[in-house]
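Please check our next protein.
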Amino acid sequence: MDTTISDEEVQQILDNCWEDLACFAYEGYHTNGRGVVGLEKTDIEGGLLGRQTRLLYAVYDFKAGKPDKEAAIFIREYDPEWEVVIQYMREDESVQTMRLRTAAGARYPWRIWLFNRLAQKEKESEGNKE
C-alpha cells in the first residue's frame, strides 16, 4: 500500500486541520517528550483527502544516531507551545521534515491542547451529574 503524501496534500492538511494536528503534537510532547508528528496515508476510504491520514507521534533515540542531523536540530530546538515538527514520506520516497510555527492570529498548540482538556473535563463532570 502506498503511504506517501504529496506536498500539496500536506498543505491541505495544514490549512484544514491545523488545530487537530497541533493538539495531537502537544499531547505527544506532554505525554512522551520532544518528538515529531508523522503523517501517513492508510487504505481507509472516506477520510481526509479521500483517504484517511493517520497521525503518529515518534520520539527518536538520539544515541542510536537517529534521526538525521537536520531533523535532530528541529526536534532539539522547536518550541512545543508554539511549534510542531512533522515528517512524512513524499511521493519520491524521500522523508520530508518540517518545523512549523503557529501563524499570526492562529491558536497555538499549547492553547488548543489546554482548551480541549478543559472541555473534556467539563463533559466528564456533566456526565457524572446525570
